C-alpha cells in the first residue's frame, strides 16, 4: 500500500475513510491523558497541595482537547470524507475545519505553556527570562496563525468566502508561516526538555537521583521527536488521490499526539512519589505475610512482646536489694568520655551518665537557626509546591545533606 501522494487530478475516484482509525487514535490518546491528569490532580489535592497556574492551564487544555476531538470526529462522520473526487466541501464543513484547526493550535500552545509556567517556579532568574521568552513568542505565533487561518487567499480561488476576514495573504506566505510555527513548537519542546538539567544539577541529591528526576522532567523530548516526524511526513505532500482523506485523518491523530503527549509528560513526575508509596505498601504486606507464615518468627516476636509488657523486675526479685532505675531519657545516645556520679540518701552510689557540654550532639540552640543557603530553601519549596514531592522524599534518601553546625560551649 503506497501512502505517498499521487497526481490524480483528472481521474474520478472514491476516497478511503479513516473514521475507524481516527476514533481509535484520538480517544486512546485522550483516555491516557485523562487518567494521568486525574492522578496528578488527585495526588496534589490529597496531599493538601493547592492547584497552581500550571494545573489550571492543563485542565483548560484538557477541555479544549476534548471539544476539539469531538468536533474532528463529527467532521469525518458528517461530510468531511467526500463521495468522490468530483465533490467539494461546502461552507459549513470549511467553517468546522477552521474551528478544529484553531483548537489544535490553542492546545499545542497552551499545553507547552503549562510546562513553561512550572519551570518558572523552579529556575533561577536567568532561566526565568529564557522561559518567559519562549512562552511569549510561542503564544504570539499561535495568535497570528489563528488570524491567518481565517484570512482570505489572494492568489487562490475558493478562499474569498463571506465568512473569512476582510484581508488577504498569499498562499505561500500562509503555508510558510504555519510551517514555521510548527518548527518553533518543536524547538520549544527541546528547550523545555533541556532546562530541567540545569535546575536539578544544583540540588544536593545523589547523582543517580539527579539523573532520574531530570530524565522524568525531560520526557518532552519524546514529544519533540514525534512532532518532527509529523512535520517531515506532512512535507511529502498530500495529493488528491484515493488516500487523500485517509492521510488527513491520520494527520489529526499526529497533531493530537503532540497535545496529549505534552500533558502526559508533565503528569509523570508527580506520580513518582505515588508509585513509591505503592511499592512501599506492597513490600510491607509481603513482609507481614512472611512473618505470619513463619512460626519461628512468630515465637520470637511473641517472646519479645512478653518481655516488653512484663516490664523491669521488682526489688523483691533481687533479694530485697534496691536498685535505682534510670529513665530512658537520661541515657545518652553515644559513648561519652566524661562521667559523673551522684549520691543517694542511702549512701549508695549509682553511675548516672551526664553528657559533657563539649561532647554533646551538635544540635543548634532553640534561639538559633542553622545556616542554610537561600537557594536550597527556594529549590526545595519550589519542587514540593510544584507537585514533585521533593519535601516528601525524606524516607527515600533524597533530602539534602544537613548543614554542619559549630560546637558552642555555653555555661
Description:
- This protein has helices at residues 19-46, 53-77, 91-122, 125-149, 171-200, 207-217, 220-234, 244-267, 271-293, 295-310, 374-388; strands spanning 152-153, 168-169, 340-343, 349-352.
- The chain is mainly alpha-helical.
- The protein has a domain at 21-277: Rhopdopsin 7-helix transmembrane proteins (Up-down Bundle).
- The strands form 2 sheets. The protein has a two-stranded parallel sheet. Strands 3-4 form a two-stranded antiparallel ribbon.
- Residues 1-8, 326-331, 333-381, 389-401 and 405-411 have low confidence and may be disordered.
Q: Number of DSSP strands?
A: 4
CATH topology of the domain at 21-277: Rhopdopsin 7-helix transmembrane proteins
Secondary-structure class: mainly alpha
CATH class of the domain at 21-277: Mainly Alpha
Give helix and strand order, one letter per element, not per position. Answer: HHHHEEHHHHHHEEH
Per the principal axes of the C-alpha atoms, what is the gross shape? globular
* Alpha carbon gyration radius: 33 Å
Q: Residue ranges: pLDDT <50 for 5 or more in a row?
A: 1-8, 326-331, 333-381, 389-401, 405-411
What is the typical, i.e. mean, pLDDT?
75
InterPro entries: Rhodopsin_dom_fungi, SAT4-like
Domain Rhodopsin: 39-276
Biased composition (Basic and acidic residues): 364-375
Protein name: Rhodopsin domain-containing protein
Task: Label this structure with key terms.
single chain, 411 residues, mainly alpha, Rhopdopsin 7-helix transmembrane proteins, 4 strands, globular, Rhodopsin domain-containing protein, transmembrane helix, Rhodopsin_dom_fungi
Amino acid at each position: 500500500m503506497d501512502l505517498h501522494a499521487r497526481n490524480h487530478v483528472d481521474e474520478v475516484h472514491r476516497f478511503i475513510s479513516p473514521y475507524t482509525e481516527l476514533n481509535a487514535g484520538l480517544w486512546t490518546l485522550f483516555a491516557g491523558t485523562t487518567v494521568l491528569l486525574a492522578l496528578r490532580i488527585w495526588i496534589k489535592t490529597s496531599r493538601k497541595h493547592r492547584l497552581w497556574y500550571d494545573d489550571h492551564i492543563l485542565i483548560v487544555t484538557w477541555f479544549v482537547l476534548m471539544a476539539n476531538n469531538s468536533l474532528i470526529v463529527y467532521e469525518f462522520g458528517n461530510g468531511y470524507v467526500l463521495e468522490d473526487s468530483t465533490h467539494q466541501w461546502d461552507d459549513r464543513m470549511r467553517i468546522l475545519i477552521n474551528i478544529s484547526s484553531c483548537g489544535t493550535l490553542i492546545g499545542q500552545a497552551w499545553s507547552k505553556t503549562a510546562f513553561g509556567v512550572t519551570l518558572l517556579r523552579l529556575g533561577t532568574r536567568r532561566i526565568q527570562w529564557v522561559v518567559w521568552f519562549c512562552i511569549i513568542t510561542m503564544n504570539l505565533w499561535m495568535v497570528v496563525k489563528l488570524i491567518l487561518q481565517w484570512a482570505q487567499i489572494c492568489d487562490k480561488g475558493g478562499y474569498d468566502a463571506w465568512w473569512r476576514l476582510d484581508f488577504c495573504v498569499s498562499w505561500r506566505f500562509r503555508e510558510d508561516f504555519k510551517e514555521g510555527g510548527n518548527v518553533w513548537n518543536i524547538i520549544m519542546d527541546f528547550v523545555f526538555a533541556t532546562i530541567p538539567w540545569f535546575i536539578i544539577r544544583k540540588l544536593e541529591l545523589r547523582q543517580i537521583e539527579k539523573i532520574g528526576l531530570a530524565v522524568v522532567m525531560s520526557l518532552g523530548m519524546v514529544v519533540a521527536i514525534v512532532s518532527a516526524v509529523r512535520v517531515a511526513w506532512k512535507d511529502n505532500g498530500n495529493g488528491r488521490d484515493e488516500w487523500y482523506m485517509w492521510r488527513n485523518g491520520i494527520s489529526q491523530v499526529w497533531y493530537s499526539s503532540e497535545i496529549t503527549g505534552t500533558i502526559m509528560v508533565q503528569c509523570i513526575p508527580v506520580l513518582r512519589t505515588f508509585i513509591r508509596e505503592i511499592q512501599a505498601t506492597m513490600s510491607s504486606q509481603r513482609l507481614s505475610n512472611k512473618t505470619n507464615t513463619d512460626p519461628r518468627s512468630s515465637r520470637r516476636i511473641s517472646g519479645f512482646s512478653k518481655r516488653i509488657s512484663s516490664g523491669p523486675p521488682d526489688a523483691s526479685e533481687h533479694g530485697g536489694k534496691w536498685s535505682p532505675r534510670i529513665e530512658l531519657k537520661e541515657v545518652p545516645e553515644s559513648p561519652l568520655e566524661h562521667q559523673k556520679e551522684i549520691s543517694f540518701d542511702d549512701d549508695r552510689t549509682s553511675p548516672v551518665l551526664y553528657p559533657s557540654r563539649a561532647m554533646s550532639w551538635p544540635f543548634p540552640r532553640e534561639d538559633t537557626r542553622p545556616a542554610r543557603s537561600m537557594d536550597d530553601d527556594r529549590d526545595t519549596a519550589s519542587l514540593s509546591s510544584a507537585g514533585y514531592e521533593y519535601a516528601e522524599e525524606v524516607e527515600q534518601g533524597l533530602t539534602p545533606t544537613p548543614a554542619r553546625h559549630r560546637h558552642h560551649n555555653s555555661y
